Amino acid sequence: MTAEPKEIPQGPAVEAGRDQKYVAIVDDEAEAKLNGLREAHGATWDSPDDPHNPYNWSLTRKVSIAIVVSCGQLATLMSTSMMAAALNQIAEDVGLSISVTQICFSIFLLGLAFGPFLVAALSEIYGRKFVWLISNVWYILWNSLCPVGNNPGLMMAGRFLAGCGASAGVTLTAPIMADLFHAKDRGKSLALATLIPYLGPALGPIMGGLASQHIHWHWLFWILSSFEALVTVLGAIILKESYTPTLLRRKARAQNPNVYPENSPLTQQFYIDLFTQLRKNIYRPLRLLLTRPIIQFLAIVYGLDFGIYVLMLSTYANLWIDRYHESETISSLNYLAIAIGTTIGAQAGGHLMDYIFRRMRDRPGAIVTPEFRIPYMIPSVLLIPIGLVWYGWSAENRISWVVVDIGAAIFTAGCFMVGQGMLAYLLDEFAHAASANAATRMLSNILGFAFPIFAPSLYDRLGFGWGNTLLALLYLGLGVPIPFVLWFWGPKIRAIGKEV
């Protein structure tokens, strides 16, 4: 909007007229949104300020939901890495080679790769709360069974199936925050939701080191299952359904049962409708992954980011045990550097992202697009190769633990800043946030499964210096260019496949 010429008087009547025009435009936009919801779901909110709309819930309720969901995700993300410091002991007790034990460690990520397809589909049919609760119970069951009898088959199957249940945390946390907070607050909402869980991959090995040295590694699984059970009970009480389509479908059914007739589970039609909806909703993330190049770009950069991160988690304890001759407990404390990097990246990064977004949005003539997230991501992607090289060559030359941990913290901060930026971009672009998130995370979790398997061979042959340099070059070649590509050609890439 251009400024008025100075010679034209700006009296109170003119200002009042302008304010009335602005209010009328805002009211028209709000009315159009409400009508659009009615057409899509058979009901709409009573007004833009309807207290039943999750956007209008009190901050206390929103924060309570964020904390509960975060605590649930904390336990499941700790499961990702908790075996790292106890791998040698687990291999000995279960009777597996180190390489096969490494597969037991990383197969959890394979569950995280494929679980989101079903979780996302069910959440878009039945809502967030029901699916979150059921998935937690599934995780508790299989995580508790993993160590029973020191059985290799049960350990492998249990880790995979527990990962499928744990995928609800990583799949639904961001969509729940998108249900509750507007786009302008997306950075702060993600920072709030990730404050606790992003510490999980760093705290898991610390817990593993303490358990393997002072009690028994079996308790790693049972302690986490007990904690998750407590969180699930709290979630059943505190969590409220936040998915707008589910809430409006319920409202439409209450107003007119014929709009969404509810079939009994005892009837054949119930299962026909269920599988029809499941097929449609499971197909959606696969379709997004195959037909939307923007998803493929995001999946590549996030996949490399996460794959290298999990590789580091799986080898960090052994670095300190083998090269620095530290005990399991002392070696696991170095994961605090990863926790520090995670906290800085997630918290400071989230607020920085909102600040940059507001500055770009407030420019004259600005039209808000997902590309407003890119200026935040560009410096973030550069931290990853810098941290990798710093950490790798410091460890190779056995420099003081402080220097090695600083490099690890820089790398980790970059990883989580990139992840947050990509996630915000995704939520800005896609209405079906859970499906888009599942599609993007599939590649990341497959790489998170694969990278730790070849980690021992990588460092045995190249050492930490050249091994991390190779990873840094891989990221520089494939990951770093993508934010620049999205900045210049993002709108064109987003348009491809949109009509499919």
Give a structural overview:
The radius of gyration is 24 Å and the shape is globular. With 500 residues, the protein is an all-alpha fold. It is built from 18 helices and no strands. It has a single domain, classed as Growth Hormone, Chain: A, CATH 1.20.1250. α14 (335-361) runs parallel beside α16 (401-429) and α15 (374-396) packs antiparallel against α16.
Summary tags:
disordered N terminus, globular, 500 residues, single chain
Alpha-carbon Rg, integer: 24 Å
Fraction in beta strands: under 5%
- Total domain units: 1
| Oligomer status | single chain
Question: In DSSP terms, counting alpha (H) and pi (I) runs of 4 or more, how many helices?
Answer: 18
End-to-end CA span: 35 Å
Stretches where pLDDT is under 50 for at least 5 consecutive residues are 1-10
DSSP summary, beta strand count: 0
Which fold name fills CATH's third level, the topology?
A: Growth Hormone, Chain: A
Average the pLDDT over all residues and give the rounded result: 81
CATH superfamily: MFS general substrate transporter like domains
CATH architecture: Up-down Bundle
Q: What series of H and E elements makes up the topology?
A: HHHHHHHHHHHHHHHHHH
Structural class: mainly alpha
Q: What percent of the residues sit in helical stretches (DSSP H or I)?
A: over 70%
Shape: globular
Q: Major sheet: size, sense and barrel closure?
A: none
Question: CATH top level?
Answer: Mainly Alpha
Membrane topology: Multi-pass membrane protein
Main location: membrane
GO molecular function: transmembrane transporter activity
Domain Major facilitator superfamily (MFS) profile: 65-494
